[in-house]
Each structure stands twice: as structure tokens, then as C-alpha cells.
User: Which sequence fits this backbone?
């Protein structure tokens, strides 16, 4: 796993539990991250003046008044300001397969089960940087590619014969190249 200087990344934390917000801020500061915004209200966090310029969003599963699924869907809405491409790491104590799939289908980039350590959070951040996922634009989904692996040997009737519509980030090589240029 690559080691990055994360101090220039801008994080947005969204959790309606003030204790968890403080814990997350402490973990990120321990990782050397200086630019952290934290909000206990998902609707407030979606305001353009707050979300603009954010590099990574970390949110909790249980949010109010807006659910985390709706929060992520609104981020992924096809908007002109490129916020729809921001990686979202969702944290949750609900770690059963159906819960993770529900989050994935809403458009999260990474899932982090709770309880989480600073090491696990760092690993998810680095994975997000090292392995950016292409974005899929279909009639019923816009977000990071939900597939984690590809089985070239699969021959069933639903085998993907064509590559789905992917969205290219114009002029952006991703967070890894940005961090490599600052290290």
C-alpha cells in the first residue's frame, strides 16, 4: 500500500452523532489531514458553499433528516459542478451483505464497517486514491462502477458483452496523480 501525504486533501464528514464526528476528526487529524469540515446535518452538508472543492466525503449510514442513501443519491445527481464524482466512504455498523449492496447501489465508493480504527480508515482512503473506479452512466444508475471483479469465464445469458457507458473525468487524472505531484 502506498504512503501518501494527505494534508492537502479536503474532507467532508457527515454524521448526526456529535461524538462520532469528533472521533472522525481526531482520526483524520492523526493521519495528517488539515482540511476537515464536519456537519451533523446532511441537508446542510449538501449546500454548494460547503460541498464545493471537497476531495473525499465520509458519511454515516444513519443520517437525519436526510437518509444517507438519499444524501449519496443527491451527490451523484448529474450536476455541472463535478461534485457527483467525489469519492464517498460510508461508515456503518450494518455490515450484512444486503446493507452493503444497498449502499453500493446508492453510489458509495467504499464501505467501512464499524467499529473502525484509524488504520482501517486510512486503508479505505488509500484504496480510493490508488484504485479510482470508472463512473457508470445508465438509465437507472450514475456512480462508481459497482463491480469489484470481472469473471472472464462467465458464459451465462446475462454476461456483459459490451462495456457500459463510462464517464471520463476531463483533464483529471485522479487523486493519486495530484498527491504524487505534491509529495
Assistant:
Amino acid at each position: 500500500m502506498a504512503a501518501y501525504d494527505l494534508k492537502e486533501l479536503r474532507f467532508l464528514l457527515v454524521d448526526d452523532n456529535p461524538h462520532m464526528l469528533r472521533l472522525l476528526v481526531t482520526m483524520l487529524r492523526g493521519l495528517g489531514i488539515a482540511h476537515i469540515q464536519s456537519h451533523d446535518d446532511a441537508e446542510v452538508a449538501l449546500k454548494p458553499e460547503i460541498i464545493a472543492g471537497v476531495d473525499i466525503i465520509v458519511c454515516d449510514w444513519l443520517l437525519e433528516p436526510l437518509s444517507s442513501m438519499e444524501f449519496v443519491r443527491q451527490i451523484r445527481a448529474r450536476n455541472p459542478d463535478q461534485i457527483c464524482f467525489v469519492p464517498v466512504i460510508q461508515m456503518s455498523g450494518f455490515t450484512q451483505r444486503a446493507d452493503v449492496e444497498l449502499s453500493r447501489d446508492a453510489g458509495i465508493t467504499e464501505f467501512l464497517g464499524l467499529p473502525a480504527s484509524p488504520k482501517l480508515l486510512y486503508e479505505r482512503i488509500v484504496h480510493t486514491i490508488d484504485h479510482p473506479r470508472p463512473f457508470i452512466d445508465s438509465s437507472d444508475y450514475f456512480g462508481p462502477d459497482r463491480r469489484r471483479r470481472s469473471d472472464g469465464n462467465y458464459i451465462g445469458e446475462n454476461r456483459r458483452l459490451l462495456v457500459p457507458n463510462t464517464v471520463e473525468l476531463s483533464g483529471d487524472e485522479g487523486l493519486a496523480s495530484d498527491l504524487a505531484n505534491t509529495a
